[in-house]
DNA sequence: TCCTAATAGTGTGTATCTGACACGATTATA
DNA sequence: TATAATCGTGTCAGATACACACTATTAGGA
C-alpha cells in the first residue's frame, strides 16, 4: 500500500457529474456536446480533470458550477470507472458523481470544452461518448434505489411543495403509479415533512397545502425503508 | 469531461482492499505493518498502485492475491477517497474495495512493502496510517448494510454450512442476537439456500443439516430485504 | 453403560404493517 | 353559474413480523 516508490506513469483523473432534474413530468439529465476529439460532436456527461489541490467532491462541485452555474445542491459520489480502454487517448480514470437539482435553476451555459449544453429527457438519450451510457444507467439505478430507501426525492423539488407534486416526482422516477392515500400516510408517518401553513392555489380545484422537508429528520429516515 | 488538454501533474492512484473474515466468533480484518515512510511501523489496509494497463477491479484482485494468496472471492468497490492531504508524500487518490473471504484460507504473507501482515479483531484496532481508519469504518458500515439487504453473509462461510453457523455469522456482524426460529424461517422462505443432504456431526447434540448457497438465486435475493 | 449437557429442529398466536379502495368539498375557468 | 379538475380523508382485510419453549438427539465423561 503506497510504498516509497511512486509510479511515473499515472492515469489521468477526471470527475463526471450526472445531473438530474424533474421538469414537466419528465426526468431530465444535462449533457454537453463535445467540441473536441475524441468523440467530437457526441453527447457526454459533463466533467473534467481533478485539479492538483482539490478534493474529489470539490472537483465535482466545481464542474457542476461551471456547467450549470448552480451550487449547494445534492451531490454524491457514485462509482469510479477505470477500465484501461475507456478513453482512446490513454488511461483516464473517472470518479462519477450524481447531482439532483430543482427545475427552477438558471439555464446551462456551455463551457470551453463543450459546443453546447442541453437537457435531455430520460430514458431516451442520444449515443454517448466514452462509457457514459454505462455511467448514466448506473446513476439512474442509484437514484431509484435511493428514492425507495431515503428521502432524497425532495432534492428535485423546490423548498416548498405539495404532496401531489412530491408523489408525481416519485411516480416519474420509479416509473409506476402510487396510491395517493397510502403515499400521504407513509410520508406523514415517516415524519420527514412538515406543513408550512401556506397554500398553493392557481390550479382548478381546492388549494393544496404546502410542505417543507424537515432537515432535522434526515438521519432518521435513512434508516427505514420508505416504500417497501 | 476530458477535453483535448491533458494535465501534466496527475495524482497517483492506488487501490486499498479491506479484507474481512470471520473466525472463532469474531470479525477480523487483515492489516499490514508499513515497512517504509511515511507512517513507517503503523498498521494499514493492504493496497498498492494501479498499473497502467489494469482495471481497478483487476488491481484490487491483484493486491488481494499478493497479500493473502487467494482469489475468486467476493470483492466490491467501496468508495474513492481523494482528499489532497490524505498522503503526506503528495496527491494520492485511492479507490477502496472490500473483500470477504472464508476463514479456511492460507495465512497471509507480508509483501515487499509490508514488514508484517496480521489479522486484527474488529472493532478494536490499532492506530492506522493515512485515512485508513475512515476507510475501514466505511467498509464495516457497508458490510452491515449489505448483510441486511442481500445474501452476502455466505461469502464469509465455507461452501457448506449449518444454519447455526450462518446465524452466528449474522449475529457477529450485526452485533445483535437473532431469534433462531425466525432466522431459519426467513432464510428458508427467501429461497437462497438448499440442503446438501449431508450433516455435520462431532459436537454434542444432534447432527446439523448442511446447507449450501443457491447461486442461481442471487439476483432474486438482492431485490428483497432479508431482515426487515 | 448410563447420565449429563449441549445442540438441532420445530409451530402458534398476536400485533403490526401493507395495500386496495371512493367520495365530498373546493376553486379556477369557461 | 355550471363544469371540470384537484385536494384531502379512513377503513378493512390480508400479509408480515415478532415473541416465545419444548422434545429429540448425540458426544463425552462418570
Detail the topology: elements first, then pairings.
Two copies of one chain form a homodimer.
Chain A: E1 12-23, E2 26-34, E3 43-44, E4 47-49, H1 56-68, E5 74-81, E6 92-100, E7 114-121, H2 132-149, E8 160-161, H3 163-174, H4 180-190, E9 193-200, E10 208-213, H5 218-223
Parallel strand pairs in A: 1-6
Antiparallel strand pairs in A: 1-2, 1-4, 2-3, 2-7, 5-6, 8-10, 9-10
The structure holds a DNA duplex (30 and 30 nucleotides).
Please report the two chains with the greatest interface, counting residues with C-beta closer than 8 angstroms to the partner's C-beta.
A-B, 54 and 54 residues
Bulk shape of chain A: elongated
Which ranges of chain A are low-confidence, i.e. pLDDT below 50, for 5 or more consecutive residues?
219-224
Oligomer: homodimer
Under CATH, the homologous superfamily of the largest domain in chain A reads Nucleoside Triphosphate Pyrophosphohydrolase
| Mean of residue pLDDT values of chain A | 87
Protein architecture, described:
The structure is a homodimer. Chain A is an alpha+beta fold and about 230 residues long. Chain A folds into 2 domains: about 10-150, Nucleoside Triphosphate Pyrophosphohydrolase (Alpha-Beta Complex), CATH 3.90.79.10; about 160-225, Orthogonal Bundle (Arc Repressor Mutant, subunit A). The first copy, chain A, is about 25% helix and about 30% strand. The first copy, chain A, contains 5 helices and 10 strands; from the N terminus they run ββββαβββαβααββα. The first copy, chain A, has helices spanning about 55-70, 130-150, 165-175, 180-190, 220-225, and strands at about 10-25, 25-35, 45, 45-50, 75-80, 90-100, 115-120, 160, 195-200, 210-215. In chain A, strands 1, 2, 3, 4, 5, 6 and 7 form a 7-stranded mixed beta sheet that branches. A 3-stranded antiparallel beta sheet of chain A has the order 8-10-9. Mean pLDDT of chain A is about 85; it is low at about 220-225. The first copy, chain A, binds a DNA duplex (30 and 30 nucleotides) through α4.
